[in-house]
Specification:
- This is NERD domain-containing protein.
- Pfam families: NERD.
- The protein has about 325 residues and is α+β, with helices and mostly antiparallel strands.
- The chain has 2 domains: about 5-200, 3-Layer(aba) Sandwich (Trna Endonuclease, Chain: A, domain 1); about 220-305, Arc Repressor Mutant, subunit A.
- It contains 8 helices and 15 strands.
- The strands form 4 sheets. It has a 5-stranded mixed sheet, sandwiched between helices. Strands 6-5-4-8 form a 4-stranded mixed sheet, with no helix packed on it. The chain has a 3-stranded antiparallel sheet with strand order 10-11-12, with no helix packed on it.
- A hairpin with a 5-residue loop joins strand 1 (about 60-65) and strand 2 (about 70-80).
- The longest helix has 27 residues, at about 25-50.
- The mean pLDDT is about 95.
- It binds zinc ion (ZN).
- Zinc ion binds near residues 222, 224, 240, 242 and 243.
- Zinc ion binds next to loops.
Length: about 325
């Protein structure tokens, strides 16, 4: 399952943010939620892979795009059949979940009795539905578009307030799909054609956060002991003071963190700062072993860090 740009950003951020940063805990909590979300989407994928579909079908996971008004859509999963299209919003939330239909308030009470409000998932997913309906209309395609909120945590309890709301436990998904197949007759629509249309407007959305370089820990981290302390560079290797491991490839992770959190362009100066290298010449030697492209001359020279960064002689 492809991780969103935001997920990748937050993953790097929680590894790099200074422990004493005033938002460090907030970032960590946000990343835990993203991890839970991804775990929920994986469970949905497994459940759908096990289901015996009654027609051709296509599934798009983590579908992202920008609509004509410039607003974004991030859809956990989109199932396309000749009978219907259904949009899945997956929630991996534990505890008891409550809903007050009158005020459309969605909240949970944890096992420890802590009450916490969540954004109402029905509004989010209905907004996606309207967009998909309009998109199909523009393409002169007629197919019912539905949505469902899926609770992926089997121990979560749903309160009576959810009655008549489009929400189910993941375990009842097969039964739910059976009922849809019964209710919506087949059309001549070819799922493959629609999924190709969606793929043509798919667009990876950028991370929803930014961070100043000064708030990040610098240095190359040790893979072996995972101690968050920079390794020292000498005689062509990175040395871990803690477990005495020496390595050459930790530089890849560090520069990927730089690319993800700061951006793909790095000067020799920033390179030395971020990796903790004193010598300008050692930096130039290291840069020559990386598949980075040099742009410009002299002081304005910078290097472009590619996604598939490699290190070698
Ligand atoms: Zn180590």
């Amino acid at each position: 399952m492809q991780k969103s740009e935001h997920y990748v950003f937050m993953d790097a951020l929680v590894r790099r943010i200074h422990e004493d940063d005033e938002e460090a805990l907030l970032f960590q909590e946000e990343f835990y939620r993203l991890q839970a979300g991804l775990a929920g989407e994986m469970k949905l994928k497994t459940t759908l892979a096990d289901y015996f579909f009654k027609s051709d079908y296509e599934i798009l996971y983590n579908f992202e795009c920008i609509n004509l008004r410039g607003f974004t859509h991030q859809i956990d999963a989109l199932l396309i059949t000749p009978h219907f299209i259904i949009i899945f919003e997956v929630k991996q939330i534990s505890g008891s979940l409550f809903y007050k239909p009158a005020v459309q308030e969605f909240y949970r009470v944890t096992d420890n009795g802590i009450e916490e409000n969540f954004a109402n998932p029905f509004d989010q997913v209905y907004r996606h539905q309207l967009f998909i309906e309009q998109f199909l209309q523009q393409s002169a395609l007629k197919l019912p578009v539905l949505h469902i909120v899926v609770i992926a945590n089997y121990r979560a309890k749903l309160d009576n307030g959810f009655e008549s709301m489009p929400i189910i436990h993941l375990s009842s998904l097969p039964k739910f799909l059976e009922s849809l197949y019964e209710h919506y007759p087949s059309t001549t629509v070819v799922p493959r054609q629609i999924s190709e249309l969606f793929k043509s407007i798919h667009q990876r959305l950028p991370a929803r956060r930014q961070i100043e370089a000064s708030r990040l820990k610098t240095g190359v981290f040790c893979h072996h002991c995972n101690v968050i302390g920079p390794m020292l560079f000498y005689r062509g290797f990175w040395h871990c003071e803690h477990c005495k491991t020496k390595s050459t490839d930790g530089i890849i992770d560090a520069l990927q963190h730089y690319r993800i959190l700061i951006g793909p362009h790095i000067t020799n100066h920033a390179f030395r700062n971020f990796l903790g290298i004193k010598s300008r010449y050692a930096a130039i030697r290291l840069l020559s072993k990386l598949n980075v492209e040099a742009v410009g001359q002299g002081k304005s020279r910078y290097y472009v860090i590619p996604e598939d960064l490699l290190y070698g002689d």
